[in-house]
Design brief:
Ribosomal Protein L4, Chain: A, 209 residues, alpha/beta, 2 domains, single chain, six-stranded mixed β-sheet, 6 strands, 7 helices
């Protein structure tokens, strides 16, 4: 597979051959859906938590004696029947949303999404991507010259580049990721995929079986 290669000025300077076992995989939407749902579930943070009668404050002694008062019997003022008592069947932090997906399925889904980016001309390959200072203006000038223009994009880095990471941090529709951490969910979150040629080698070494 041959794709166009651009420089940082948005000029086409040639073509690069992509490994077909990664960038030319037949699409299986059911597999991609299953993997993406599992990744979303694994990233889910359990925030909502209600206290049961054993967690709320107070209620250490019996409010009144068992018999002889004419009132209903109660053992604690923190029963769910009382105001300020515990909550029955409320959401708790003990809930588990994690889903396990085999490594081969995650890898296959990643290859399918990468192949879809190539087939839909949403992969922008650069000969290199470097900026001298961690300034947002510099990275914005580069992105405006590329075919992606002002649309959302994920920048894949072959290794950690502090200047690029800091420069893109304030852009709401731009994010960076190390090539070895690529996954189907992050790829589908952004429309365009921008990466230097060196990232292909990292992807192949990390994910190829």
């Amino acid at each position: 597979m041959l794709v166009n290669t651009y420089n940082q000025n948005g000029e086409k300077i040639g073509q690069t051959r992509l490994p077909s076992e990664i960038f030319d995989v037949k699409l299986n939407s059911d597999l991609i859906h299953q993997v993406v749902v599992s990744q979303m579930a694994n990233r889910r943070r359990v925030i909502a938590h209600t206290k049961g009668r054993g967690e709320v404050r107070g209620g250490g002694r019996k409010p009144w004696r068992q018999k002889g008062t004419g009132r209903a019997r109660h053992g604690s003022i923190r029963s769910p029947l009382w105001r300020g008592g515990g909550v029955t069947f409320g959401p708790t932090k003990e809930r588990v949303f994690k889903k396990k997906i085999p490594k081969k399925m995650r890898r296959k889904a990643l290859f399918m999404v990468l192949s879809g980016k190539v087939k839909n001309n949403l992969l922008i390959l650069l000969d290199k991507l470097k900026i001298e200072e961690p300034k947002t203006k510099l990275i914005v000038d580069i992105l405006r010259k590329l075919p992606s223009k002002e649309e959302s994009c994920l920048i894949v880095l072959p290794d950690y580049d502090k200047n690029i990471v800091l420069a893109t941090r304030n852009l709401p529709d731009v994010d960076t990721i190390w090539a070895g951490n690529l996954n189907a969910l992050d790829l589908l979150t952004f429309k365009y995929l921008i990466m230097p040629k060196e990232a292909i080698k990292v992807i192949k070494e990390t994910f190829s079986p």
